[in-house]
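stage 2 :: seqdesign
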């Protein structure tokens, strides 16, 4: 591991481990992105995956939101779909449409066409280089989060070939070809474990796993085709980092829409359970407190379309609902491209002021 500057602001790390904080840390999913004009300027000159693959550009857009507001963490600029690319699939990012796979996995026979055991350092070395460079540039300002997509969410894109409301093709695999689906999920799990461990070796100080399409599975299908893989990722990443003598890093799971699985997720090795805005904070708190898990979330991103005063009062209520121990404030999903950066700034500042008020009056 490289030598990097010590952390000046470790609120995010302490909150993730349910330790005492002076104020609640806050960041936003998709905090780097199209809602920032400086991001759009970079994108006007470079294709999406060129930004991901060029460490200087990925580092620049990672740092952009931190120049505007007092965020307590950075997240490396990349995409979950770099894993399917590393397995040999072509992915294009089409403006206005999102990701497109020109040749999705049409049937389980197509699994043979994948590079099933990719050399992660070779195929994804550009991500590790971007992480190293960003850690240097951050100079200890705030922690840098690495991430990956969860196996089911990746499978959903690989089979459906792009975004979908139902991911019915991928879900048909689960019932028509459960064994082949499990083989694909196993392969994605193994690659993800290596990918996440190497992100930490490169300098990532926390990891988030995105199971963005948990909600369309339902509890019994989730229990079979998502949870075991999520659990294995957390257990193995922790074990391998500890075997390498690397200090523990917080692991966050964001299983969007998995209301039915908060209890099961709290029994895995993740340190933080991230809630979307439709999830009940009180219930999640009760379940997760028993397991000493921290929570992340969960303001409705659409709330940022409201006026600044309304944003501040909704944020204050959110901070009170979660409590000031074991909470990382965030949105319940990513920033939308037409949101006003000043409104995100109002959210960030309100998290800080509302939590300081509670802590100082205790
Ligand atoms: C499902 C998913 C993807 N990518 C990601 C997820 C999981 C989170 C979630 O549920 O939203 C994760 C992701 N994608 C991106 C980041 C960067 C870091 C950050 O959060 O700031 C992260 C963490 C950049 C991005 N990834 C994408 C953009 C916008 C594309 C552009 O710049 O043209 C960005 C900034 C594109 C993308 N990438 C993906 C989709 C479906 C889309 C199209 C939708 C959209 O346009 O927002 C796949």
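stage 2 :: out
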């Amino acid at each position: 591991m490289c030598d990097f500057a010590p952390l000046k602001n470790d609120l995010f790390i302490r909150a993730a481990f349910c330790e005492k904080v002076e104020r609640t840390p806050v960041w936003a999913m998709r905090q780097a992105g199209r809602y920032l004009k400086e991001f759009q300027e970079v994108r006007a000159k470079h294709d999406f995956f060129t930004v991901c693959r060029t460490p200087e550009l990925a580092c620049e857009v990672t740092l952009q939101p931190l120049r505007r507001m007092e965020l307590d963490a950075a997240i490396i600029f990349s995409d979950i779909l770099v894993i399917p690319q590393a397995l040999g699939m072509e992915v294009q990012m089409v403006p206005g449409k999102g990701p497109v796979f020109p040749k999705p996995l049409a049937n389980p026979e197509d699994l043979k066409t994948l590079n099933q055991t990719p050399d992660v350092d070779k195929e994804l070395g550009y991500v590790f280089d971007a992480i190293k460079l960003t850690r240097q540039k951050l100079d200890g300002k705030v922690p840098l989060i690495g991430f990956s997509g969860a196996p089911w969410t990746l499978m959903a894109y690989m089979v459906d070939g792009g975004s979908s409301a139902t991911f019915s093709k991928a879900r048909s695999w689960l019932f028509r070809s459960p064994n082949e689906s499990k083989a694909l999920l196993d392969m994605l799990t193994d690659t993800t474990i290596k990918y996440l461990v190497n992100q930490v070796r490169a300098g990532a100080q926390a990891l988030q796993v995105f199971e963005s399409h948990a909600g369309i599975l339902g509890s019994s299908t989730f229990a079979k085709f998502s949870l075991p893989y999520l659990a294995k990722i957390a257990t193995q990443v922790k074990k391998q980092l500890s075997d390498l003598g690397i200090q523990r890093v917080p692991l966050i799971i964001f299983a969007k829409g998995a209301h039915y699985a908060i209890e099961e997720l709290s029994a895995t090795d993740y340190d933080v359970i991230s809630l979307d805005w439709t999830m009940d904070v009180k219930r999640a708190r009760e379940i997760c407190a028993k397991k000493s898990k921290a929570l992340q979330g969960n303001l409705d991103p659409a709330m940022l379309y409201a006026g600044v005063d309304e944003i501040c009062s909704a944020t204050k209520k959110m901070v009170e609902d979660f409590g000031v121990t074991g909470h990382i404030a965030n949105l319940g999903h990513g920033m939308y491209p037409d949101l006003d950066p000043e409104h995100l700034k109002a959210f960030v500042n309100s998290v800080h002021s509302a939590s300081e008020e509670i802590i100082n009056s205790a």
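stage 3 :: structure notes
- The chain is about 50% helix and 10% strand.
- The chain has one domain: 11-361.
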